[in-house]
Amino acid sequence: MIDEELLKILACPVCKGEVILKDDKIICLKCLRKYPVKDGIPIMLPEEAETDESENEKK
Question: Which residues contact 31 (CB under 8 A, 6 or more apart)?
């Protein structure tokens, strides 16, 4: 589990958008990238992020 105080200060490293925790992933509300959480540590690296393929097709 990620501390609520840590979650409040985290931001997406790509677009600087606000993030939320859902299903053991940190999700950016702006660009919809999903960052994994491993052993309670958020891995906020752009190359580790999952992207929504349908969003990529719209661009």
Answer: 12, 14, 15, 17, 51, 55
Q: Are strands 25-28 and 19-22 parallel, antiparallel or unpaired?
A: antiparallel
Are the CB atoms for 21 and 37 separated by under 8 Å? yes
pLDDT bucket at 55, cuts 50 / 70 / 90: very low
Check residue 42 and give left, alpha or beta (phi > 0: left; psi -120 to 50: alpha). beta
Query: Domains of the chain (ranges plus CATH)?
Result: 4-52 (2.20.25.10)
Is it the case that residue 31 has pLDDT exceeding 70? yes
pLDDT number for residue 53: 62
